[in-house]
Amino acid sequence: MTDTPKIDLVLTDLEKEIATPEPYIVVLPKNRRITFKDPFGFRVSERKEILDLYDAAQRGQADDLEFLKRILTEADYKKYVDADLPIRTHAALVQRVMAHFEGNMGDEGKGND
After folding, report:
1. Over the stretch 30-78, which tens digit does the pLDDT of each residue have?
2. Is residue 7 part of a domain?
3. Fewest CB atoms within 10 Å of the CB: 1, 23, 71, 92?
4. Residue 71 domain flag
5. Which DSSP helix (H) or strand (E) runs through 17?
């Protein structure tokens, strides 16, 4: 008799259970649309570049435009830069984009209310 280890989880099953957010689409002046990629949809190997860049930008230690370069296509990033938004609007937009994508992850470890 051989002992067969019990499988607790098959990764493909987990991936089917994970809620993925809708894209975040913003209409800029002159009716120009841009679509933000899900920062949590990147690979673990890209985590440092993506999420750490966002965190550093929030602490004022990095430029949040570098973060946007990663979560927008090149064409959408150009549209965003060309829109030349006021700083206050830009900051609020970045926070809203992240809140949209974070909202699908819940508040792991802190309880979901």
Report:
1. 999 999 999 888 999 998 888 888 889 888 888 889 999 999 999 999 9
2. no
3. 1
4. yes
5. helix 11-17
Closest CA to 70 of 60, 80, 61: 80
Burial class of residue 71, CB neighbours in 10 A (0-12, 13-18, 19+): buried
Strand, coil or helix: what is 20?
coil
Q: Position 10: which residue type?
A: V
Place of tokens 């493909």: 12
Is residue 76 in some structural domain?
yes
Global confidence as pTM: 0.77
Q: What is the largest CA-CA distance in the chain?
A: 72
In a domain? residue 3:
no
**Dist. CA 101–CA 48, nearest whole Å:** 17
**Residue in this structure with the two tokens 């370069």, named with its chain if needed:** 69
- 57: containing domain: 29-102
Number of domains in the chain: 1
